[in-house]
Structure formats: C-alpha cells, structure tokens
Design goal:
By secondary structure, this protein is an alpha+beta fold. Helix content is 40%, strand content 17%. The two termini are 34 Å apart.
Length: 272
C-alpha cells in the first residue's frame, strides 16, 4: 500500500544539520516498501525524482548493507536487515513482546484479529498483529501504513491529543478518504474524537476497508511513542451489542498492556 504523500519526495531541502543523502536513502526505502511490486531503478528514479547515477550509488549502498535486496526480475525489495532494526525497536519499547503476551494471557485463540500500531505523522504504522480464528479478515502486514483518522487505532491515539494538536497535524493537505464512509473534514474528525472519549473506545465503521469494522483503545507507551490496539472484524457478522462488548474488552486489554509497559491511561483521556 502506497504511503500518502510519498511520491516525488526525492529532492530534499538543505536544512542545518540534515544530510541529503541520508534523506534520499530513507525515501528509497519508503518507495520500495510501499510499492505494489518490486520497482526497477528507472521506476524509482521517476517516482523519486533522483538522477539515475545518484540513485544507483545509494541503492548499491543499501544493497551492501542488506537494507535492500534485488529480485530475479531486477527490481528492489526491502532487505532482511530491516527486520533486525524492527527487532531492535521492539526490544527498546517492549511493545510487540508485551502485546503478544497480553493477548495470550487474556484472549487466547480469540475469534477476532487484534492489531497494534503506532502514530507516525498523519498515519499509523502496524507493528504487531495477532490473527483471530475467523477465516475471513483483513491482512495486517507489519509495516502497513493507513490514515490515522480512519482507523480505530489511529482515532484512539488521536483522542489522547489536544484538539489544537489534531488541527495542526491535519492542516494543509485534505484528509484521505479510502472509502465513502471515511471522515473528510477536520471538524468532523474532532467531533468523532469527542465521541470516542465519551464512549471510551474508538470505532472504524467501514472507514478504512469496506465491509470491515474495528474498535480500538490507546496505550500509554514508553517515551514519546503514541500507540493503540484494536479488534478488527467483518461487519456483517457483528451486531451492535457485540461491537460494544469488544469495545469494553479492548479498553481492558489496553489498560493491562499499558500497565505492563509501565504506564496507565489517564482518566481524562478516555472515559467510559
């Protein structure tokens, strides 16, 4: 899935203390990671606006460091060393490890999928997933990016911010609308976040994927990390009372996981 705004970001502005070649390398990894299929050198050059000669040297370095791999067809894909970096991230934050422990302790073999994501700008990045026992579900691959304002985890995280912070975050570009149910205006998003705080959990009602709904709650994670967890399910088999039941359960899971991470959700953030 392509990250919104990732196209045409190869040219970088020179700011004090910023190394342009490092930024270009990051843009390359983003473009490869979000491509529908492994892009070739020429395709990357056109997408990112980086001269082929410069791009060749950057990709050669990323290949050497195993951050990129070459496919049999000559394209690029993310390299195995990225997993090492993710494991280092998980070790530092304990997010994924504790997430799986809480799922195993409190909801073993639950029928619905449970996901964990972190806020990154206007998007959430999925960092862990525990698949449910139902045969039909959304596939949440690690590293998947989705709009924060449409997802249950994203809305849960955003509900912990001040409204001024939300307005600043979503100023400028229009809100992405993956489906016809997605929120398209900042004021409507603020109202939805007020409802989330009053309800005690967030709801994604076919706003990210048609036919799917989710309920989520925020975590109190270590450091400056803003994270949330959610149940994801097929809407056709979910009654309103079942959705509310799962909303309360995801609140409980978030509270337990936050405590294990060393924090607790302040009462002023979510009431329910």
């Amino acid at each position: 899935m392509r990250t919104p705004g990732s196209q045409g970001r190869g040219s970088v502005r020179r700011s004090p203390g910023i190394v342009p070649s490092v930024l270009r390398a990051i843009r390359i990894l983003e473009a490869v990671g979000n491509a529908a299929r492994p892009p070739t050198l020429g395709e990357l050059a056109r997408t990112l606006g980086i001269p082929k000669s410069t791009l060749h040297d950057l990709c050669a370095t990323l290949l050497q460091e195993r951050l990129l791999e070459r496919t049999a067809g000559g394209g690029f894909r993310i390299g195995v060393r990225v997993l090492d970096l993710y494991r280092a991230y998980d070790t530092a934050t304990h997010l994924g490890t504790e997430f799986h422990r809480v799922c195993e302790d409190l909801v073993p073999r639950h029928e619905e999928t449970i996901v964990l994501s972190v806020l990154d700008g206007r998007e959430v990045v999925y960092v862990a997933c525990r698949n449910g026992t139902q045969p039909i579900a959304v596939n949440y691959r690690i590293g998947l990016r989705l709009p924060a304002h449409t997802t249950a985890t994203g809305k849960a995280i955003l509900s912990t911010l001040q409204e001024e912070e939300v307005c600043a975050l979503f100023s400028g570009e229009p809100l992405a609308r993956p489906t016809r149910h997605s929120i398209g205006q900042v004021e409507a998003l603020l109202e939805e976040l007020r409802k989330t705080r009053a309800r005690g959990y967030s709801v994604d009602d076919e706003e990210t994927v048609e036919g799917m709904c989710c309920v989520g709650a925020p975590l109190c994670a270590p450091g400056e990390i803003r994270a949330g967890i959610a149940f994801s399910m097929v809407k056709a088999r979910t009654r309103r009372d079942r959705l509310h039941e799962l909303g309360r359960k995801i609140q409980h899971l978030a509270t337990v996981l936050s405590e294990r991470l060393g924090g607790a959700i302040p009462a002023r953030q979510l009431r329910g």
